[in-house]
Task: structure prediction
Amino acid sequence: MNLWHGSAACRGHGFLIDKGCGDSRARSGMMTGVTGRAVLVTGASRGIGRAVAEAFAGSGDRVAIHCRESVAAAQRLRDELPGEGHVVVQADLADPEAVRTMVDGAAEALGGLDVLVNNAGVYTAHPILDTSYEDWQRHWRLTLDTNLVGAANVIWCAARHLRDRGGRIVNVSSRGAFRGEPRHAAYGASKAGLNSLTQSLAVALAPYGIAVTAVAPGFVETDMTSEQLGGVRGDEIRAQSPFNRVARSEEIAAAVLWLASPEAEWSSGTIVDLNGASYLRS
Ligand SMILES: NC(=O)c1ccc[n+]([C@@H]2O[C@H](COP(=O)([O-])OP(=O)(O)OC[C@H]3O[C@@H](n4cnc5c(N)ncnc54)[C@H](OP(=O)(O)O)[C@@H]3O)[C@@H](O)[C@H]2O)c1
Result:
């Protein structure tokens, strides 16, 4: 299969979309601590994933920007990132074959993989007493297929590229895994499952020099939460934190960048709370 397509092309199954027009720039002053790692970030077209891609590129890494349908946004980001060698890859994470082609395409384009950030996710409301049985099934299937099984499949595929050179896997979980998600029960369950997956694979992959960690943010200002934050509950949500605000994507990205660093190997298996002291556990 030819993985290379024109810049606007976007076909059905996961693949490498393109490598841009060769105008990626090494912007002097922006590349501190150049590392040149090959990094795949899922769901990097917007929100937290976009900030994560920017953080890695700003550190001198090459990023495969994954998206599902926001191909134009992903391509714009690729062209804006500092440094060279960034690519755009596409796949619906609920499609296992698309995932395999996408991960292999990213590794081929970047010359292997050093870091995987499993960030893509969905968050759909399905309050139990107001949701039909059919819709309940639909929300659970979509959420688990994307947030949990999709992430597990990305890891399975990426592990084949990481096993001989070691590396880092960082999963983007959620505070909801601990605190509960009364209107988004499948989401909370998917993130609790992702936490357990993180712990299991931290043990399984340590002998290969692969550290596996997770971050568990509370509310972050992104498309996913814009309706809630802009609505009648916005102030109440901000007041959950004694800082009286929600997180910025860059604050999550900073933690992901550190967890992916060589210094963070001993953190393998950890789940880092990033919630502005809005939910404390010990
Ligand atoms: N925002 C928060 O308050 C918050 C809090 C805790 C945890 N999180 C977690 O952080 C991660 C990112 O959240 P966000 O707020 O940045 O979300 P967002 O702005 O809604 O972006 C979601 C990203 O995931 C991709 N995506 C969604 N469904 C997909 C699928 N089936 N296959 C492939 N890609 C898919 C989207 O791609 P397209 O653009 O192509 O659709 C997009 O890049 C998620 O895992 C979320 O659960 C978010």
In short: The pocket of NAP is lined by residues 43, 45-49, 67-70, 92-94, 119-123, 146, 172, 174, 217, 219-220, 222-225 (CB under 6 Å). Residues 15-19+34-274 form a domain with the Rossmann fold fold (CATH 3.40.50.720). The longest helix spans residues 133-162. Strands lie at 15-18, 38-41, 62-67, 87-90, 115-118, 167-172, 210-217, 271-274.
